[in-house]
Design goal:
264 residues, alpha/beta, Purple Acid Phosphatase, chain A, domain 2, six-stranded mixed β-sheet, 14 strands, 24% strand, Calcineurin-like_PHP, Metallophosphoesterase_sf
Length: 264
Amino acid sequence: MIDGAWTMWGKKGEPGRVQTVTAALDLPQWGPESGPPLRVAVAGDFHLRPRGGRQARRYMEKIMEARPDMIFLLGDYANGHTRKSSMSPEKARGYFRMLRAPLGIFAVQGNHDQYYGWEPWKNMFTDLGICAMWNDSFLLHLPGGRKLQLSSVRDDYHMRIRPEELPLRLSPAIPHILLSHVPDIFPLLKPGTADAVISAHTHGGQICLPGGIPLGCISREKVKFTYPWSRLNGTPFLITRGLGCSVLPLRLCCPPEIIVLEIR
């Protein structure tokens, strides 16, 4: 009876209880005179199912409740390993168009988006004015005269990332944030390459013991991540537990989340 109740909660209850987690990143290149903190909504691992419209709408509403200056979308918009198991980009367009951020929306690709095919997702985002990133690096000019280098790394599920693919830092005087669907790129990163890496993929374990202790190790590198921050190879990693479910349609002791990151 208890097992059945937990299963019902993990399937019908907890996946719908999206939390908002706050975090802060202090950049040494920006001083207090640079202006108010940059407010960034961080969301990943949507795993949109064919009939998941109600959930998709709730995800977008939760992101917009944060009143973000900027939005980082961290991959796995598609669900499962075939197109039949996933909402199509054409249908998802109606939900992602709900997102607004005055300083831009940036989307990277996840491993499930590779299974579906990244091209239709990339085209959908581009049509909506969302910047779909793939091993890209941009220099952003922000209010108050602040500069920010924002880079991305493609997901490496099918073909391992090579060190020469990693974006080069423009200057130590310009803060550098790297978006990567998986946090397991950390062995390739030399200290000082980025001021922070922002990742998803792990789902926080998805099915955990009380206290958020994962039942298994999600990392390809067999590392136990901490949430929301880990320090890996000398670099701070912000890792979100994500929004959706993969493999099993359950979440236990690991509620879905968006992160509101204040960069100052």
